[in-house]
Amino acid sequence: MDEDTSLTAVEVAELLKITKNTVYVLVKRGEIAAYKVGKKLRIDKKDVQEYITNQKNTNNNQNSYSKTITKDNVFEPENKIDEKDIIISGQDVIIDILANSLASKTNDIRILQSKLGSYLSLYELYNDRVSIASAHLWDGDTNEYNTAYVRKLLPGISCNIINLCYRTQGFYVAKGNPKNIKTWSDLLKKDISMINREKGSGTRILLDEKLRLHNTSRQYIKGYNIEKTTHLSVASSIARGEGDVGIGIEKVALQVSGVEFIPLQIERYDLIIKRSDLIYPVYQRIIKIIQSQEFKDVLEGLGGYDLKDIGKILAQT
Predict the structure, then answer these.
(1) To the nearest 10°, the Cα dihedral for 198, 200, 206, 209?
(2) Exposed, middle or buried, 56 (CB in 10 Å: 0-12/13-18/19+)?
(3) pLDDT tens-digit profile of 107-148?
(4) 167 with 304: CB under 8 angstroms?
(5) What's the predicted TM-score (pTM) here?
(6) Fold of 60-164+271-316
């Protein structure tokens, strides 16, 4: 890492595989040193490296805290949930805010995070390796979000599906949309190259379901196998000209200069909790946080979310 180079908040977010808003939170809390050049925030690479080192050195801290679990270790058999851990899985900044809020109100339980996509989050919930999952998985046969997947991936387990927000999914294209990309069928054009999301993410499943319904083979899409692990990294790749189109949420497009957003579909983003866990006070506390005006006010301040059903139980399985 070149220690003489400074980074923008967007670049740090891409490097750490977190959202831009989470970078601002880390700076505000003093966990990453930063400074301003004019009105622009800048962070030295050496300070990012120091943050990473500090995170590695705090693994033995037994107080209540929020920590990220990487994809590399979340699947290990020994990572079954400890009775003093709550692991919330999801990639949106809403999950960061929820985990931090819960940690501030909880003294005897560690609050951890897993940055897995929707499909793997439900899989890990079934295998008792996360406590709570979040999902935005579209089923093309029912034109519904999440319920069908919860029933299939958590067979025999009754769950509450609680709404967090609605978001707009669409195409990230270069400013001015020079390739005139507007519909799913445009992905098949020979002069169009895409940047995809990883398997298991809600965005990838949305694309694959659309292809299935249109009886279209993915092999005809140039760049289908080029994967990025966040909406931000997809949008940034399009801004750099690495591809002509990517798929993600509108909120992230607003954070990346050089990218235009083409809306396609409103998606539902939900939290999935096993109903058997609702007897425990910490899970009741989580629901109270989501349903609180304070939590809603924070999300409204971020923008980009439709919160009309936040905290409502939209389905039970």
Answers:
(1) 110
(2) exposed
(3) 878 899 888 899 999 999 999 999 999 999 999 999 999 999
(4) yes
(5) 0.75
(6) D-Maltodextrin-Binding Protein; domain 2 (3.40.190)
